[in-house]
Amino acid sequence: MAGPRRRRTPLPTPPPLGGIVVDGSNVIASSKQRPIERLDLVLAWFTQWRPDLPIMVFLDYTTAVRCRPDAQDVLRARCADVTPGRPRYAVVPLEALPDEVLLQHARDHHALVVSNDRFFDHEELRRGVITVQFTLTGDQLEVLAEATWFRPSGGAQRVSMAALRSSRARRPID
User: Residue 148: is its pLDDT beyond 80?
Assistant: First the structure.
């Protein structure tokens, strides 16, 4: 005779997304070749994946100045471009801690973070943040099928990108 069935506790559902934050320095750091094209591949993928969400790209100052002058010019122009519907760019000042600025922005705006960084040295700041990793080889971007939600209560939970894609968007913060 089989024992009593255990009732499974449903996993908590991550909150609706309010935006997408791209760790531009992490995208560029994966190769020194063609930084703008690499960023563009990531932006195109996520714009197609969730066209309803605003995108913010963060670059740390040292990464920005390591780029070739022509790439720096493009990054400078993109930082100045605040056209509605386009990704926004921000260069984190040299004296600031880039991961902290990025994670705080993601928390404040309930944004998905695109980065291969696991932010282990910012455990408290990553609470509540959902991160997705990727591989970028040449002109090929592959986004992992599952993201990691660092739950507010502690611990981490895998969340399918399909579930995040179909989740409703959070109202923008005024």
Answer: yes
